[in-house]
Design brief:
The complex is a heterodimer of chains A (358) and B (185).
Chain A: E1 6-11, H1 18-32, E2 37-42, H2 45-51, E3 61-64, E4 76-80, H3 87-95, E5 101-105, H4 113-117, E6 132-134, H5 149-153, E7 168-172, H6 179-189, E8 194-199, H7 204-211, E9 222-224, E10 227-232, H8 237-246, E11 249-253, H9 254-263, E12 268-271, H10 279-291, H11 297-310, H12 316-325, H13 327-342, H14 347-357
Parallel strand pairs in A: 1-2, 1-4, 2-3, 4-5, 5-6, 7-8, 7-11, 8-10, 11-12
Antiparallel strand pairs in A: 9-10
Chain B: E1 2-3, E2 12-15, E3 18-29, E4 35-43, E5 49-55, E6 59-62, E7 66-76, E8 79-84, E9 89-93, H1 94-97, E10 109-115, E11 118-123, E12 127-135, E13 148-153, E14 158-162, E15 170-174, E16 179-183
The chains are: A alpha/beta (358), B mainly beta (185).
């Protein structure tokens, strides 16, 4: 029996759950879908524990916040987003006669330039250590989206294809934003009954204040006009896909949730991570352009306008009304888009293919 | 030491004990306010070209080479000819100049860097002024959400400009990045 290839992943949690989430998908995917023995070096195990409460029991994945030992040189190294290997580890590895395949796993973007940067070499300035940039993305010239095999197979679930009927079930997972109360006003005034599912997070207090209640301690639903709000506990990673699929529409935030929402094949609205100089609006525009390819002009505009409004550019009420008007077509389009993304292969598969060719 | 974000055409850096001249450097903002640079590099020892990507904060050993003040004289196909203060002519090819070819004006004062007596890079004035020959008008009610658009300058070079720029406007361009700086004063 051949020994399992080994992989070291380095993750730095900057904020929220995205860093840990992406590193966890990479780690568990490599271990369980592609047979690697994985060590995940992460500086914030507490965040990972909330996201993956069972992380200590995950087969072939070891998690530690301690540095690697000198004697360890794996077959594959991945620096995930802001994560970097320690300097002494880099020095030691560069001297080893059999160097690992070293990947720098970057942020997801639909911008054109990403295609020119994907799989470009990044030689270490001082040491004899080849490294390669890996860009997840939305086209065949990128690494594809990051998802596990079980997320792909759910697309065949016929339950997913039904067109929404009242009450409209909406998942709301966003960064803190003053727009949440405006959104709730719009939902409450909608003649179509709406059930809003809110996992515990950055907007819980604002929603509770809107409803005039104390911060929720249980999951009993609260009704306001035509809106019923269900506060749920924090949703760990292994329950997040089911949460997304259970909704008719998903408001999601950040990169990892966006990918999961795409693979859940339901209509979505993306709260993109804000960046200096409004750079994120160009990235949002690039994503909207890719996502709406194949839609009629009116439907595309409905998608774009609501996504812009939710990110602070435009009126939410009129944008929402237009989005809902096109909901049946947007639901069918969500299926098609997820299927189209699958054709590029997952970022996991494409990364492993690159590793195996080196 | 230079960080990758500071790299410009003409810089010479060491990678694994080999000197490389930066032919072209492209900067892009990645996620979470981080950035990456794609560089086209030419080996000073072998003359080979390669493309590499670096995180914006990657550090490089900077090599100091001989520099001279030169002026741009003319295009002697396939090379661009510069003259130093002692009236010596020095040829540089288009590949070495990179995007700088789009900003050359006859008589422009530049600085040339030499390696083994050969001109390997030319540094232009940091700012030039060019007129917009064509760009899409800024439409009222534009709902695309984009803050920039493409403009073609007199001479044919295309760059991204703010959505408010119009045909005929004169703009300042940073020759180091090929990017829009300001409306010309």
């Amino acid at each position: 029996m051949f020994p399992r290839p080994t992989a070291h992943l380095f993750c730095k949690v900057v904020d929220n759950f995205g860093d840990a989430g992406i590193a966890w998908i990479l780690a568990t995917g490599l271990a369980q879908d592609y047979g690697f023995e994985v060590t995940l070096f992460i500086d914030d195990v507490v965040t990972l524990q909330k996201l993956a409460p069972d992380y200590t029991e995950t087969e072939n994945v070891r998690v530690t916040d301690l540095g690697p030992r000198d004697s360890e040189t794996p077959n594959l190294v991945i620096e995930v987003l802001a994560g970097t290997a320690p300097e002494d580890y880099i020095e030691y590895t560069a001297q080893h006669h059999k160097k690992p395949v070293w990947m720098i796993y970057e942020y997801l973007s639909a911008e054109d330039w990403v295609q020119d940067f994907h799989l470009k070499p990044s030689p270490h300035p001082r040491l004899d250590l080849p490294r390669t940039f890996f860009y997840p993305g939305f086209t065949a010239k990128t690494g594809g989206l990051l998802y596990r095999n079980q997320q792909k197979t759910r697309l065949n679930d016929l339950e997913n294809t039904k067109i929404p009927s009242p009450p409209l079930k909406i998942g709301l997972f966003s960064y803190e934003t003053p727009l949440v109360t405006r959104l709730l006003d719009v939902f409450a005034a909608n003649p179509v009954p709406t059930q809003l599912n809110i996992p515990d997070g950055q907007i819980t207090l604002a929603v509770a204040a809107f409803l005039g209640i104390a911060p929720p301690r249980n999951t009993e639903p609260v009704t306001h006009k035509s809106l019923q709000v269900r506060f749920t506990p924090f949703v760990p990673r292994n329950e997040f896909d089911a949460y997304l699929i259970s909704n008719d529409i998903n408001f999601i935030r950040g990169e990892e949730s966006l990918t999961s929402a795409i693979m859940a094949a339901k209509p979505l609205i993306w709260h993109i991570y804000p960046q200096d100089e409004a750079v994120h609006m160009n990235k949002l525009a690039a994503f909207c352009q890719v996502y709406t390819d194949g839609l009629s002009e009116n439907m595309a505009q409905a998608f774009i306008t609501l996504n812009q409004a939710w990110n602070g550019h435009g009126d939410i009420k009129t944008a929402w009304e237009s989005y809902i008007y096109h909901l049946p077509d947007l639901t069918r389009h969500a299926q098609k888009f997820a299927t189209r993304m699958q054709q590029h292969g997952s970022a996991l598969k494409n990364l492993v293919d690159f590793y195996q060719k080196r | 030491m230079k960080v990758a974000q500071e790299l410009r055409g003409g810089n010479v850096i060491m990678i694994s004990n080999e000197p490389w001249v930066v032919v072209k450097a492209e900067f892009n903002k990645s996620g979470r306010n981080s950035a990456v640079m794609k560089t086209k590099l030419r080996s000073l020892l072998k003359g080979t070209l390669t493309e590499s990507v670096f995180k914006a904060d990657e550090k490089f050993e900077d090599i100091v080479l001989e520099k001279k003040a030169v002026t741009y004289s003319y295009f002697g196909d396939p090379n661009y000819v510069f003259m130093d203060e002692e009236y010596n002519q020095h040829d540089v090819d288009a590949e070495t100049l990179g995007d700088s070819v789009n900003f050359l004006d006859e008589g422009m004062a530049c600085e040339m860097t030499f390696y083994n007596g050969r001109g390997i890079s030319v540094e232009l004035p940091t700012t030039v002024i060019r007129e917009i020959e064509y760009t899409e008008p800024a439409a009222r009610g534009d709902t695309s959400g984009k803050v920039t658009k493409t403009a073609r300058l007199v001479g044919g070079f295309e760059i991204k400009v703010p959505a408010f720029c119009e045909i005929g406007e004169k703009i300042e361009i940073d020759t180091r990045t090929g990017e829009y700086k300001n409306r010309a004063k």
